[in-house]
Amino acid sequence: MKTSILYIFLLSVLYACDSHSLLPPKQQLDQQIAQLNDYSLLSGRLNDQLCEEIETHAQEIGNDSLLLATRQIIYTRYCRLQDTAHARMLLDRMKPYAIRIKDKHLLMNHLRMAFLHAQIRQPAECERWINEARKYAYINPQNWYITAASACLECGLYPQALIYADSALVNLKYKVISSPHLVKAIALSRTGKTAEAEEWTQRCITDIRHFQAKHQIHTISYLQYQLFMEYAVSLRKHGKNKEALSVLEELDRVSFNNVATPLLRNKDNIEEYKVRVARMLSECHYATGNQSEAIQQANRADSLQSHYAQEQMNIRRKMISESLQNELLSTRLKSQKAEAEQARLIQYILTGVIILLMAILTGGYLWWRNHRRRLRQLFDLLISHHAAWLLIHDPLPLISRPQIKLPDHSEANTEVTTKADNLLYQRILSVMKEQKPFLNPNLDLVTLSRLVGTNRTQLSTTLNRQTGMNFSRWLAEYRVHHLLSLVALRPDSDITALASESGFTSRTSFFRQFRQVTGLTPNQYRNVRKETGK
């Protein structure tokens, strides 16, 4: 008992040495992902190292769904950082399991790659990834058409953008202004289809104004911003500077809704759209002869540009500062991991040593107990053999009664045999009383002979001579008498329930043997007891 308490105490101390290992693996992974999300500006080697550690940890957990979800988070981060190489490697690792379970992100992940190459102006790669995404268009065909159209428009594939936009409009169930309408209007303008482009542009702008007035919305999306700018540029080319001013002033009054931009949003032309609007306003005012307003808008554009440059500078400083902090944190983390690994190794070694010692102690104790039991059995056997030998070779009758005539040889053998049987029978009764082997339903002649210290033949012969019954009948009678003693001690208990406590193997054998011994069934015996009041 003391050894077990000491063992438990040592284990608790060992596990307390490594507090990190006490956290569940899933919780450790969540902490690492939260840490990655906190470092929004982290990039380069530190970002790759942290992402690799998170993916390795997810692999060690062994849950495919969790690993896929973790890789999805890392993949989205690499897309946000425009790291095409790592994003493609993550996508290749995700693809086999995603295809097997028909993951809903399968199509969008390929479209992300297409849009990512569109942003960095790689039209060939963009078109290749759009065609690659076609394999999984069955997941959401409409989304594939819409995103393919936006990606082609972004990287300058205007004819393809027009085709995808028309396909999306064919399957479009709602009539409200949407991205396929905007993409088609812009693509028509940039492919030189002026008349059709003007018609679609005016229709889209009218629908946008009507929708904003109806729902009191004062924001526009990136595609809406592009459409308004395309329309303003077109009006200026045709000398309609006043109409262009009206469009630009309307564009200047609204704010840019970054949420409505497609897939990826960290583009310079999005962040400085106010600067571009201010410069075009300055040009239009100058063309209409309003030089003071033109100068004012030009100064405003310069001020916005300076503010934007200052913001970019602050972002770069913050990134450098965060990188230095992350470098320091990474160094500390490596040191803590090394210490934790060393503590865990010591913990495993000590645990193994303790388990080995416990096994040795347990084995030694079991061996000693078994050895002591065998010695006791051997001692009892020797005592019984010695007692039998004394009965056969006792010299006292010859010394005390020399004048008595000795019996003949046959009478002497019978007397010795009777005494040996009596002694063996007393030994049997002693074993049955002290060790109660009859409570074992599987007790047989061989088992009892081993407990008594004789062989099965001698045991069976002795029982026949002493009781006039064979072993089975004698054992049944012994069990029935034990049952009756239990009934006397517990009169309110059910006789059938007490049968299993007396060694009977089954209900059928109990009823048969009980009737053979008492001449009554258990129910009849119970009724007799009630009538007699005993």
UniProtKB/TrEMBL annotation:
All copies of domain HTH araC/xylS-type, residue ranges: 426-528
Pfam families: HTH_18
Residues that span the membrane, as ranges: 345-368
Keyword Ligase applies: no
UniProt cross-references to SMART domains, sorted A to Z: HTH_ARAC
Top-level division of the source organism's lineage: Bacteria
Keywords on record: DNA-binding, Membrane, Transcription, Transcription regulation, Transmembrane, Transmembrane helix
Listed GO MF terms: DNA-binding transcription factor activity; sequence-specific DNA binding
PANTHER family noted in UniProt: ARAC-FAMILY TRANSCRIPTIONAL REGULATOR (PTHR43280)
Name under which the protein is recorded: Helix-turn-helix domain-containing protein
Species for this entry: Parabacteroides distasonis
